[in-house]
Design brief:
Length: 431
């Protein structure tokens, strides 16, 4: 399981620990500063610092603080719109907005615009989730194709899209669209209780706003199984080898684009046991290019090679002059693992009871970087036929993949032969 280094190791005694205790001159009302940056403080002192009082505002306080409150609400609703899917939150927002609007006519239009933008975003999210539900409902097991064998498969990925570069571009469309709907608050919700990638999905069910994060993880799994299905389906060895080489070219183009999530999903699909056991098929494949891809996504040394490539793509994005150069789609499962272990590896409070701002700044830095990447507009033209195939074509389950693999290349030992017989009996009703 990939892990980031312990958070304490990221700050040595000459840096992080030195900043924990500041001199009297750097403290103000229980809050401690270093170089004019808030470093730590008790939660009580922070609340006292933020809550308005008579000392902060004169009698006409509403005129003084209304612009700041309106700015805060605007940033809140734009950055964390999912918070307001909760009826209580929406009700409180409307009540506060009404108070601001009633204080001065000049704020009325701004408040109305804020609420309209929020409702529009929530409606868009709702429509997106409905589409996802319909897509998932149409993607059933591909088992009927196995029952029809040995007939030639009439429709596969190469017949739908014979250009691997076009397929990589359409995968990037899907990635960016799904990334765009993940709100930063979903990371918080997912990490409240436990590891968000644990097989027990209780952490998702118990929290309120992680549907889109979960859907993105499921998309990665679907793409991996789609790749394995496309390789295991063909009857002829020559065709299977051609499909493998096709996906190698797709993965290479994903790497060039900066779409690391699709790249890793494709590599994962090609490394699944039902695919890797097809030795006669792989013997016909020129694997040099695939070896390079595996090297780039090698998990050793905490994915050092991948992280190096990701930093290069991120640097390219900062100086980019086109949307294509701005694309950075991280290996998402590793990203949320990093954030999870960062969250778990460092306490929320310092030994003196103060809030550990160093930790939360580092968390905010990683999530903010992700927020920048997900806002990139895809520069490639959509191909609806290819997109529909990628999103809706049925894929094999684990058992169906093994059965298809055994049907393609016979079992090599008694264990495989016994499993083959069992799968044929259970899935196909054959002896």
């Amino acid at each position: 399981m990939p892990q980031t280094p312990p958070f304490a190791a990221m700050f040595d005694s000459s840096g992080y620990n030195r900043n924990l205790y500041q001199s009297k001159e750097d403290s103000c009302g229980g809050l401690y500063y270093h170089d004019n940056n808030l470093l730590s403080g008790s939660l009580e002192a922070l609340i006292q610092h933020l809550v308005p009082s008579v000392d902060y505002y004169p009698d006409n306080w509403i005129r003084k603080i209304a612009p700041k409150i309106l700015q805060l609400l605007t940033e809140w609703t734009e950055t964390f719109p999912y918070d307001f899917r909760d009826e209580r939150m929406m009700r409180n927002l409307k009540e506060l907005a009404q108070r601001i609007a009633s204080g001065d006519e000049m704020y009325r239009k701004n408040v109305q615009q804020l609420l309209q933008n929020l409702l529009r975003k929530l409606a868009t999210v709702g429509q997106y989730e409905e589409v996802l539900a319909k897509i998932n409902a149409t993607s059933k097991d591909h088992l009927t194709l196995l029952k029809a064998r040995p007939q030639t498969i009439q429709r596969d990925i190469i017949t739908v899209c014979n250009d691997p570069y076009l397929l990589a571009q359409q995968l990037t469309h899907i990635e960016l669209e799904r990334l765009n709907y993940i709100g930063p608050e979903e990371f918080v919700q997912a990490f409240v209780q436990k590891d968000p990638l644990d097989n027990d999905k209780g952490c998702y069910r118990d929290q309120k706003k992680t549907q889109n994060l979960e859907a993105y993880v499921e998309w990665f799994n679907r793409l991996s199984y789609l790749v394995a299905t496309e390789i295991c389906m063909p009857v002829k060895k020559k065709h299977r080898a051609r499909v493998i080489e096709y996906f190698i070219d797709v993965a290479r183009e994903c790497f060039n684009i900066g779409n690391f999530n699709s790249l890793m999903a494709i590599v994962s699909g090609m490394n699944m046991s039902p695919v890797s056991r097809l030795k006669k098929t792989w013997a016909k494949v020129k694997t040099d290019k695939f070896d390079i891809l595996e090297h780039q996504m090698d998990p050793s040394s905490n994915f050092y090679n991948y992280r190096t490539a990701l930093r290069g793509a991120a640097q390219r994005s900062l100086t980019a002059h086109s949307n294509r150069e701005k694309i950075v789609i991280p290996f998402f499962s590793l990203l949320i693992k990093d954030i999870y272990f960062l969250n778990e590896g460092c306490a929320n409070h310092l030994p003196n009871g103060h809030v550990n701002f160093e930790k939360f700044w580092e968390l905010a830095k990683q999530v903010s970087e992700f927020m920048t990447w997900k806002q990139v507009e895809c520069p490639f033209e959509r191909d609806l036929k290819v997109l529909q195939y990628l999103l809706t074509v049925p894929v094999f389950s684990d058992d169906a993949l093994y059965l298809a693999s055994y049907e393609s290349e016979s079992p090599e030992n008694h264990i495989e032969k016994d499993r083959w017989k069992t799968l044929r009996s259970v899935l196909l009703g054959r002896v």
